[in-house]
Amino acid sequence: MFNSSFDAVVPMLCVTLAALAAMGAEAFRARDEKMPIGGLGIIGLVGAGVACALLWNRNTSSFGVIVADNFGLFVTMVLVIVGILTIMFSSQVLEVDNLPRGEYYALLLFGIAGMMMMATANDLLVVFISLEILSLAVYVLTGIRRDDPRSTEAAFKYFLLGAFSSAFFLYGIAFTYGLTGSTRLDRIGAFLAAQSMSDNPLILVALGLLLVGFAFKISAVPFHMWTPDAYEGAPAIVTGFMSTGVKAAAFAAFARVFLSAFEPFSQQWVPVIWVLAAATMILGTVVGVAQSNLKRMLAYSSIAHGGYLLVGLVAANQIGKAAILFYLLAYAITNLAAFGVIAMLASSNDENEELRDYKGLWHTHPALAAMMTVCLLSLGGLPPTVGFVGKWYIFSAAVSSGYYGLAVIGMLTSVVSVFFYLRVVVMMYMSEREGPEPVRPRIARMGMVALTLSVILIFYLGILPTRVLDYAAESIATIF
Amino acid sequence: MIPLDHYLIVSAILFAIGTAGVFLRKNLITILLSIEIMLNAVNLTFVAFGRSLGTVDGQIITFFVMTVAAAEAAVGLAIIIALYRHRESLNPDTFSSLKW
Amino acid sequence: MLALIPLFPLLGFLFNASFGRRVPKTVSGGVASLVMLASFAVAAMSVWQLAGLPVEERVIDQTLYTWIASGDFVLDLTLRLDPLSAVMILVITGIGSLIHIYSTAYMHDEPDSEYARYFSYLNLFAAFMLVLVLGASFLVLFVGWEGVGLCSYLLIGFWFKKKSASDAGKKAFVVNRIGDYAFILGTLLLFTHFGTLDFRQLADAVAPLPPEATFGTLSIATLLLFIGATGKSAQIPLYVWLPDAMEGPTPVSALIHAATMVTAGVYMIGRTAVVFTHAPDTMLIVAIIGALTALMAGTIGLVQNDIKRVLAYSTVSQLGFMFLAMGMGAFGAGIFHLYTHAFFKALLFLGSGAVIHALHGEQDIRNMGGLKKQLPVTYWTFLIGSLAIAGVPFLSGFFSKDEILFETFAHGHWILWGIGALTSLLTATYMFRLVFLTFHGERREGAIASGSHLHDAPPAMAFVLIVLAIGSVLAGYVGVPHALGGSNLLGAWLEPAFGIMPAAGEEEAGLELMLMAVSSTIALVGIGLAAFIWLKRREIADSMARSFSGLYNLLLNKYYVDEIYDAAIVRPTVVLSTDVLWRGFDVRVVDAAVNGAGTIVGASASMLRRLQTGSVRAYASSLFVGVVLILGYYLWR
């Protein structure tokens, strides 16, 4: 069914080469020499984007384990967007925090390459390896501010729990391999469809363990405990990157494994994911209400958004599958932009990320405040932003598949969530600052460009979503 | 010839020991070692399944896992060193400034 | 063409949001008003075009593009002008423009940036409201629905330095979100049942069905929609936000209460009239809630001392009337009242704004009085507005309120009619209490600017007040009932939009005339009552103070009557409205419910966040518990 060639790995190859170039550039850089390393990354990512566009509808496959079907390419495109925006936001952060550029960009690009691999992997072992590639890069990025104890602590927690959960995941792969004789998703799927194994406890154990591994990466309750800490401790832009990129890649693999290989077992995994989705939406939202740190609040909000994505996975009809992809894109752009704002407002000695630091932001940085408002409204799912269309899709998929309970919980939690998003808006527009204005860095033009692009995308996808939705629907049609 | 079940049981026990180690031990290095034990338990499972299926895939996968484990250990130790510099402690409970 | 109507205010918003801080007030205010006028002009032209079509074809659709398409579900972003939305857009753009013009003078003391911020919100609000009424499907309507909620939140909390203002904004937002939640559930239910979100297709799908005898899907869906409407349109139990919303600038109150947001719920029921008529149970609930709200808000209005609060409760009460009409199936009458109410309520709010403006922020009517001479324009226009809302014959409020009462009576709902009639009496009484206490009598002590000379409304404000006063007199003449020799133009105009024929016929003209006489009498009695209590007694009290001994007996007698009246009617009413309905129900029950929901979320949040102890070993345990739960589920199921 696939043409075998090297084509399918081209997107991640572009990014990997850019990463290697970044490493080399850093190594051979004179002490005070300025090098446009970020630019190298953008070139690599644009190359990956072009490769994606060329591979669209071609269904190529490399070595049987990487498939560039439209589903994977759609997610790859999302990752390209995430990568480009992250790099644009990063230039200022690196300057202010005085972080090592070469290492930062190299890790970022290796991480993206891992994510792309995960999104297109057609083999459980490749899923595992790509998971590790992206995780190792992100662990280090989380702790890249080595002199900050919080950053290091965040990296440590993320690392320890990540390694712990990936051991479970690997154990699940081992059982799957032992029972089906292969780690290739298509063969597993064929094997499971051909034989009725639903009474074999080991296959259920395998299913459960794989579920745990994915649930950890997308921070579903109760595997979410690392999320708030890691997101709070990491530099804001890294948080933005990992809350969007990692989640997109993990969801792509999650959907691929469960909707293709383990499709015959949907009777078994749907109830579990139903519960996970409900718990995730509720906990993420409710605890988010009590937060006073903006980054931590958005961490809980991104947990809740993972819950909405799980609803799409449970619904898993044609609308639901397309909805997952669209929501991933919507969430990625919006969340990254919101974290980008936080990152741009952080100065080197004070991160300025408590809610009260945002009081009266409208008076000092009107453009930033306005764009942050758009992001928050989109996260809250208010029309006419992309967040609304995404939520609408997810919930209408749930309703048309008969999961009324999830739809109701989802809507109720989004009502509550608007409350805490709006709290930030109120802080920015409707509060007077008491005490001295926090020290804020000069806002770099590059970051503003990225932010403007994000806001344009948020509105464009909210007002004219059809084209992208069609792409999402097409992507789904190719594999499931 | 030892039947497959025995291998699986041994590896399950190893895996359980590793799991227990992660949240019972109070030294970061030991916890890291516990995770390694878990990964090696999985390796054993792979090899055992590979043998019983009569293919070499299981053994080959083990090499991948070992590579990943090595990389993970390297990053993990680096993070632990960075942590130790801040607090001069290896007790995981010392590091709880991020909470709630 | 239709798209231009909301587009103009949107452009105004974009202009003021991006450049408003850098241009002088005349430019930002001028642009905001001009875009509204432009929008009004386009709306008027569109309606003219609509009116030129034959009656059965009076629909203009403009499909902008396909908004959402997934599988077999296609949703176009379509704007639709039909007789119902025609009335709405004229009201919104017309009265909206006047309020914008008025605001240019009213907000003049604000600094430039705040001034621009104000007008940008105002334009955005109008744009969303226009999307709401022009949307051809639930989803487009919902865009406007959420948008006006957001803007009202920003506008009510505009003077955020006052804590009460930002609290009020928050309350409005929370209450509205509860309603929105029910609304979108109702929408989804209708969608899953009929597979469409377009109003017309939905009506076509529902029309052939028999009305639901039992409480079925349609009843649940309409009930959910109605809960949404109670949030937006301030009905029991979700009305609590509206009186607090008075914390916003006065023109905002006029905009929210008269022309736009609160009418959204009434409009939405009118828009889905066919669905509602198929759920008689819901219709009855709508009518009862409407009547009860009207009565309750009316009694509360009687004891308030804040000029804007009286008007706020009066709005709640009048909205109750509209819902009563909707519940009776008299959709035309409800929309008619909505339309006339827009005129006189905008007038009253803007008039009160002029008073507050003149008194430099004083809102307590106990500190007013005798303003008739100093503020003649305000006084006369306010008086006309009060006469109109009281239902004095041949002013606009008379025709519309009367039609509602007649329809209620004609449908045989005597009790509801009685409640309605009683509320009319209360309306006349509290409105004239307000007029007398504010404008008549002597200036009372404690008035802030008592010594200084007061300025009547500046030209921009006076102009708006006069235009609205003329509107309040004449607006009703588009709907003169058949019984008075009119032809009820508005009713006939609206009929095709609802897709149902009104029940009342010509042979009941005599009954209608009789009821008209009754309600006119009620209005006059109410005004007389107010005059008696708040004008007459004051004079008596004064003369008593002068010659206490001489006319003792006579005065005692009179006083005695007064006391009986006071003890038998006023006191209980006061007690009932103050202690039971206002302090008891309103503050305790409803507020507690709203706050309680917040408290529960807050409390569980602070409890749940404690689980996040910061210890990585605890996190690992949590992860492991998750593993055990999932594997346990699979193995021991």
Note the main attributes of this structure:
heterotrimer; B: 100 residues; mainly alpha; Helix Hairpins; 78% helix; C: 637 residues; two-stranded antiparallel ribbon; 23 helices; 2 strands; globular
Kindly summarize this structure in a few lines.
The complex is a heterotrimer of chains A (480), B (100) and C (637). Chain A has 480 residues and is an all-alpha fold.
Describe the fold and architecture.
The complex is a heterotrimer of chains A (480), B (100) and C (637). Chain A is an all-alpha fold and 480 residues long. Chain A has a three-stranded mixed β-sheet. The model of chain A has no long low-confidence stretch (mean pLDDT 88). Chain A contains 19 helices and three strands. In chain A, helix 1 packs antiparallel against helix 2, helix 6 (149-180) runs antiparallel to helix 8 (201-217) and helix 11 packs parallel to helix 17 (404-430). The radius of gyration of chain A is 21 Å and the shape is globular. The two termini of chain A are 14 Å apart. With 100 residues, chain B is an all-alpha fold. Chain B has a single domain, classed as Helix Hairpins (Orthogonal Bundle). Chain B has helices at 4-24, 28-53, 57-87. By secondary structure, chain C is mostly helical. In chain C, strands 1-2 form a two-stranded antiparallel ribbon. The radius of gyration of chain C is 26 Å and the shape is globular. Chains A and B meet through helix 5, helix 6 and helix 9 of A and helix 1, helix 2 and helix 3 of B.
How many structurally independent domains of chain B? 1
The secondary structure category of chain B is mainly alpha
Tell me what portion of residues of chain B adopts beta-strand conformation. Answer: under 5%
- Structural class of the secondary structure composition of chain C? mainly alpha
Rg over CA atoms of chain C: 26 Å
The interface involving the most residues is between: A-C, 71 and 59 residues
